[in-house]
Amino acid sequence: MNKETILTGITTTGTPHLGNYVGAIRPAIMASRNPNVSSFYFLADYHALIKNREPERLKQSSLEIAATWLALGLDTNTSIFYRQSDIPEILELTWILTCMTAKGLMNRAHAYKAAVADNESNGSKDPDHGITMGLFNYPILMAADILMFKAAKVPVGKDQIQHIEMTRDIAARFNHYYGDHFVLPNAVTDENTAILSGLDGRKMSKSYDNTIPLFEPEKKLRKLIMKIKTNSQEPGEPKDPETSTLFEIYRAFATKEETEAMRKQYEDGIAWGEMKQLLFEYINAQLSEPRERYNELIKTPEFIEKVLQEGAEKAREVSTPFLGEIRKAIGFQAIGS
Ligand code: TRP
């Protein structure tokens, strides 16, 4: 039986937070434990370059994100764990796909559109002010990540669904011209957890500076949870769980039964202060063991580097021959053959 491939990446632009964990890392690690699945997980450092011009930060983020995957129990014997920039074939494929991609499709990418909209609302004369080709081409690089390893399933946050659809478009166009080489991927999102809100109630994201880092020391974790925005309802007043960031985060960690019980506590008017304390204790209990492992791993960067090198080797065992097939398909062949 052909195993189904599942693949996801995390951009190395900061310290991993609760949103990365529940939206991508946790489902990916769970999926990797299924023996009928082959899994590819990577540090998206080519993507990080789009927003990050600080070499030290980029490097530190790669270390932290790699240590996070390992601390949370990713088994690198059964899954392929690598750094995107160790796989040069991805860049060559990016160019090939770039030549298959309608510019109009990229004009519609939401990250690019948001940047243009920002410029317009700031009254900038140039709608493309400050926008690099990296940002514009971002979805094509992501398509290369996915298509290179024939991923059928891609666990991502909801904001990434558009990119998976674009990947399908690009792959279908290539297949139409050159034959069936690429597998069309599907996004996998989880209704309960796909996007977590942050401290201020907007999506938890490095870009909004509203994240709760996953392995913050206990005291700081508590402090951050205490900062999460609530409304001004008094203790005893029934509260709406659906509009509560505290509830949303709780639900992302708790079982179904626990979530239902918490819903009841909201109806009964649990005080915000009490809810915050509960949430802290609940999350802390789940994170304290991996946090210890993380703190150990961070001290052994050479070990992490070795794991990534081994992962790159395994990934290239797939990417090198596959890129060869693609090169042949497009006519990059020895002349006279
Ligand atoms: N763009 C993704 C994000 O910001 C990260 C990413 C890069 C990715 N390449 C990918 C995710 C390929 C899934 C598959 O979250």
What would you note in describing this structure?
It is a single chain. With 337 residues, this protein is mainly α. The protein has helices at residues 18-32, 45-48, 55-71, 89-98, 103-107, 110-121, 133-148, 161-178, 218-227, 245-253, 256-267, 272-297, 301-330, and strands spanning 4-11, 37-44, 79-83, 153-155, 186-188. Strands 1-2-3 form a 3-stranded parallel β-sheet. Strands 4-5 form a two-stranded parallel sheet. It is globular. The chain starts with a strand and ends in a 7-residue tail after the last helix. The structure holds tryptophan. Tryptophan binds at residues 7-9, 11, 44, 47, 142, 145-146, 154, 156, 160.
Bound molecules: tryptophan
Radius of gyration: 22 Å
Structural class: mainly alpha
Order of strands, widest sheet: 1-2-3
Bin the helical content.
40-55%
- The dominant shape is globular
Write the layout of secondary structure elements.
Blueprint: E1 4-11, H1 18-32, E2 37-44, H2 45-48, H3 55-71, E3 79-83, H4 89-98, H5 103-107, H6 110-121, H7 133-148, E4 153-155, H8 161-178, E5 186-188, H9 218-227, H10 245-253, H11 256-267, H12 272-297, H13 301-330
Parallel strand pairs: 1-2, 2-3, 4-5
Residues 7-9, 11, 44, 47, 142, 145-146, 154, 156, 160 line the site of tryptophan (TRP).
